[in-house]
Amino acid sequence: QVQLVESGGGLVQAGGSLRLSCAASGRTFSTYTMGWFRQAPGKERDFVAAISWSDGTTYYAASVKGRFTISRDNAKNTVYLQMNSLKPEDTDVYYCAAPLEGYTGSNTYHEEYDYWGQGTQVTVSS
To answer: Pairing relation of β-strands 34-39 and 4-7?
Structure first.
C-alpha cells in the first residue's frame, strides 16, 4: 500500500514556474513508477508525465514536453514536477499517482495507476 501527498500548487502568472512535490509512504518507493496527471472539472484525467522505477526513463505529454520536468529522489521517497513557462491552459488539479510495485507498461494511461494523491490546484493567470 502506498500513500501519496502532493504539495506545491498555487497561483502563478503566465510564463512563471512552480514545482510540485509528491511524498510517498512505504519503504520500497524506488520500485514504483511515478506519474503526474491533471484534471479539470467535468473532464477526463489527463497524463502529464511519468518516470519509471527500473531505469529512470521519463515520459511526457506532448503539451508539456520541453516545459515540464519530472524527477525523483528515492532517498526522500519524493517525486517532483518542475513546471516552467506555464500557460493558462495548464490550470488544473494535479495528481500524483503510482501503479502497483514493479509495474512496467506504457505508464501514460490513468487506468494503469492504482494509488492516487488528493491533488493540488495549479492556477495560471493570463
So the answer is: unpaired
C-alpha cell at 112: 494503469
Per-residue pLDDT of the chain in tens (126 residues, 90 and over written 9): 899 999 999 999 999 999 999 999 977 898 899 999 999 989 999 999 999 998 999 999 999 999 999 999 999 999 999 999 999 999 999 999 999 998 989 999 999 999 999 999 999 999
Name every residue whose Cβ is closer than 8 Å to that of residue 120 and which is 6 or more positions away in sequence. 6, 7, 8, 9, 20, 93, 94
Q: E strands along the chain, which residues?
A: 4-7, 10-13, 18-24, 34-39, 46-51, 58-60, 68-73, 78-83, 92-98, 115-116, 120-125
Cell numbers for 123: 492556477
Give every CB contact of residue 52 below 8 A, 6+ residues apart in sequence: 33, 58, 59, 104, 107
Contacts of 89 (CB under 8 A, 6+ apart): 63, 124
Helices marked H in the chain — which ranges?
Answer: none
Hey, what's the cell of 17? 514556474
